[in-house]
Amino acid sequence: YFPNYPLVSREAPDPMEVEKFKISRGIPLDKRIMLYSGGLYAGVGLERMLIGLEKLADDWLVVLQSHDGVLQLDRVVVDSMVAAGRLCLLQRPLEARAYELLVEGCDVGLAWYSTSDENMKYVGLSSGKVGAYWSKGKPIIINRIPFFDVVCDEYNAGVAIGSIEDVFEGIRVIASDYQKYSRGALFCYKKYFDPEKGMQELQGIFV
């Protein structure tokens, strides 16, 4: 049991530290945030979501954060959404502490995988971004893929959707009872990703 997620502090970061981080990255303090952290590659479906950003409520902002500095998305679409105030792009990879502050400062985490890759249909607990989101009590929006479709529905840890165009409906559902979904996210973190629990299970195998 080796959960794939960034190690996080046992205590939540100071809110002032989170605020200073967001200001330093140009993230508005008066917006609720949906964060996508991962590969900004063509063919995953992110561009279809960006084109539909006008459907997003005015008090929400999408933050795209690249984990490797690569940007393959249509730059015209990206720049137009940034100019419209619907999108914030963080193209440079972040160090562990900065990444933790970013996740702490968001409200919903998007985990979107290319289902044309059979391996990604069974990503399960190897999803680093889901572990990071849940560790901070952030509900997720994710493809309806094995494991996560069941877990999200059963524990209210997020919303599994069939198409990237449904992401805005997913945000609406989570926002309608945010505390319920946040509690579900923390529950699933402790159930599936908590490293202390994992070490105890590992020790039980060898002791």
Describe this structure in words.
This protein has 207 residues and is α/β, with parallel strands linked by helices. It has nine helices and six strands. The longest helix is centred in the last third of the chain and has 16 residues, at 178-193. The radius of gyration is 17 Å and the shape is globular. The mean pLDDT is 87.
Number of strands: 6
Q: SSE order, as H and E?
A: HEHEHEHEHEHEHHH
Total helix count? Answer: 9
Strand content: 15-25%
Low-confidence stretches: none
Derived from helix and strand composition plus strand pairing, the structural class reads alpha/beta
Shape field: globular
- What is the share of helical residues? 40-55%
Main sheet properties? 6 strands, parallel
Mean pLDDT: 87
Distance from N terminus to C terminus (CA atoms, Å) equals 15 Å
Work out the radius of gyration: 17 Å
Describe the structure concisely for a colleague.
The chain has 207 residues and is an alpha/beta fold.
Name some characteristics of this structure.
207 residues, alpha/beta, 9 helices, 6 strands, 18% strand
Topology:
Layout: H1 15-24, E1 32-40, H2 46-51, E2 60-71, H3 75-83, E3 87-90, H4 96-104, E4 108-111, H5 128-135, E5 140-143, H6 148-155, E6 158-161, H7 167-176, H8 178-193, H9 195-206
Parallel strand pairs: 1-2, 1-4, 2-3, 4-5, 5-6
